[in-house]
Amino acid sequence: MIISFNPAHVYWIRVAHATLPTAHIAPHVLSERVAAHPTLKHVPFARAAAGLVQWLWQWAAHHPSLLPAFLGATGVSTYSPFMTPEIAARVHAAGLTTNVWTVNCEHEAARLRALKVNAITTDVPAALLSAAVF
Fold first, then answer.
1. Which listed site, 2, 11, 57, 118, has its alpha carbon 20 to 30 Å from 20?
2. Which run of H or of E encompasses 79?
3. Residue 101 forms beta bridges with which residues?
4. pLDDT of residue 83
């Protein structure tokens, strides 16, 4: 799976390799990264671009049938604490997969399994597998 913050990258990967699974990282993460960046947080264009992407995401999230076209992806990826039952339901209702990162705790993995998250990124796969979380 190819995952990117940049929707244009996801789109062009899908054009070039239509069968390759792709995911877009939820834009609220992009806004946080811009806000925390020592240089970009002072660049009006970067703040405006991050804000626009976040607004578009929020708009599309309220119109689940438009999510696949908006994202140009087969899935959505986000930081695991941001994956809520509502977001998982909306993304799945739109026919998209869910991917979360970074899950190293058995309790968090179990919570995400209950949400039917499609994939997790972890630093401790053996620990989660031996705990029979996934």
1. 57
2. strand 75-79
3. 79
4. 86
